[in-house]
Amino acid sequence: MNSRELMKALQLIEKQKGIDREEIFQAIENSLISACKKNFGTSQNIKVDIDRETGDVKVFAQKEVTEDVYDAFLEISLEEAKEINPNYEYGDIVDIPIVPRDFGRISAQAAKQVVVQKFREAEREKIFNQFIVKKNEIDTGIIRKIENKNVIVSLGPIDAVIPIKEQVATEEYNVHDRLKIYICNVVKLGKGTKITASRAHQDLVKRLFELEVPEIYDGTIEIKGIVREAGSRTKMAVYSKNPNVDAIGSCIGNNSSRINVIVNEIRGEKIDIINWSESPKKYISEALKPCNVTAIELNEEERIAKVVVPNDQLSLGIGKEGQNVRLAARLTGWKIDIKNEEQAKATNFIDFENKEVYLKENEDLEQHIEEDNLLDNNLEEDIDFNDKESYIDENMDIDFDDIEE
Fold first, then answer.
1. What pTM was computed for the model?
2. Does 94 share its domain with 210?
3. Over the chain, what is the mean pLDDT?
4. How large is the greatest C-alpha to C-alpha distance in the chain, in angstroms?
5. Neighbouring C-beta atoms of residue 279, cutoff 10 Å
6. Residue 44 domain-assigned (yes or no)
7. What is the tens place of the pLDDT at every residue in 287-312?
8. Which residue would you say has higher pLDDT here, 320 or 400?
9. CATH number at residue 232
10. Please, what is the end-to-end C-alpha distance for the chain in angstroms?
11. What are 341-362's pLDDT values in tens digits?
12. At the N or C end, where does the chain have fewer CB atoms within 10 A?
């Protein structure tokens, strides 16, 4: 590689890879210094200088000006130094031009190695920067191979690895399958970038909803919580900042169009979407759906919720192998102890005399009944039934005098 080729190579690297030429010049100079010492076995202090305009390379032996010269490779007398430049004084460093044999071949080899290395480093840096911004996001790839039970997914310029712990037991992975993955981690290593991905992460489902539901993407609907037992069931709590927007309906879509896309992507996994509430009672009640809840008693200090459900819905509330109540507890952050009405009354599970244990819906019903009773009482007070005028016309044929007697 001559000076002209070197300059062209540097211009190409700077333009395509965005690497500063000065950085490459310094790397080549350091490489040449090491090459000179290695090839010529010299103990001299070597300096290499590359002209930034022409690419011409010059090599110097650096010697210190001393009064007594003990090592001619490292020191030079003041007299000899002044022959080079009369301004030199003791302690100065003199650069003496040298031309090591076969230096042209050595310099070309060193320059080529540095250029190739910088190309590789730039490519690795580019790939790292391309994927570090995708951490905690989803990407689409094609399964390239299965190796030691790890699924290797091609993302174009680089592969991502889905380790066995991030795979879904109920899913089957085949070479050439196209699938969406959640990028858990992006790490820069000496030889490149390592990407760890997941199919089991709960945020995979969350990101899929963000892709499919515009109201989530633009912030109108907020995902307040999501828990998942991959391959089986996901529970997700949503909240609409706009009272005119149905959060659950928006996530499901017309004729279930939106949620079906997501269910198909996660291979048929069930998804429960519930309304989030700042009221712990209502939130826990929603989280236990499809089971209905009769009453809830909360222990705020220990964050324990005692829940009562109808007699015929206990198994529905608990779910298969306890899945429903387990996911509800994880979603709400409350430990949930659940019994049916018969069990609850038999064990004094909660204080049924305390209206506070009932859900808001039940309280509204009780309030409505109380208001009806109050209305009836007021009606009785307002009407004087001893007053004949207070009766309607159809009763006018009654002889009130006979009644009174």
1. 0.70
2. no
3. 84
4. 152
5. 12
6. yes
7. 999 999 999 999 999 999 999 999 99
8. 320
9. 3.30.300.20
10. 133
11. 999 999 999 887 777 777 654 5
12. C
The answer on 156 and 74 residing in a single domain is no
CA distances from 303 to 176, 297, 312 (A): 48, 11, 26
CATH code at position 171 = 2.40.50.140
Q: In whole angstroms, what is the distance from residue 333 CA to residue 381 CA?
A: 51
Q: Which residue has the tokens 């003990």?
A: 70
Residue 111 burial (10 A CB sphere; 0-12, 13-18, 19+): buried
How many domains would you assign to the chain? 4
Tell me, what CATH number does 62's domain have?
A: 3.30.1480.10
Strand 178-189 and strand 192-198: the pairing is antiparallel
Task: Give per-residue pLDDT as tens, 156-191.
Answer: 999 999 999 999 999 999 999 999 999 999 999 878
For helices 280-287 and 323-332, what crossing angle results, to 10°?
Answer: 150
> Collapsing DSSP states into helix, strand and coil, what is residue 267?
coil
**181 shares its domain with 67:** no
Tokens in use for 113? 């190695």
Q: What are phi and psi of 385, to 5 degrees?
A: -75, -5
Where does a domain end: 143, 168, 200?
200
In the block, tokens 């005028």 appear at: 389
Under a CB-based contact definition with an 8 Å cutoff, are residues 209 and 247 in contact?
no
Its domain, for residue 166, covers: 135-200
Cα angle, residue 71 at apex, residues 65 and 74 outer, rounded to 5°: 55
Residues 91 and 22 in one domain: yes
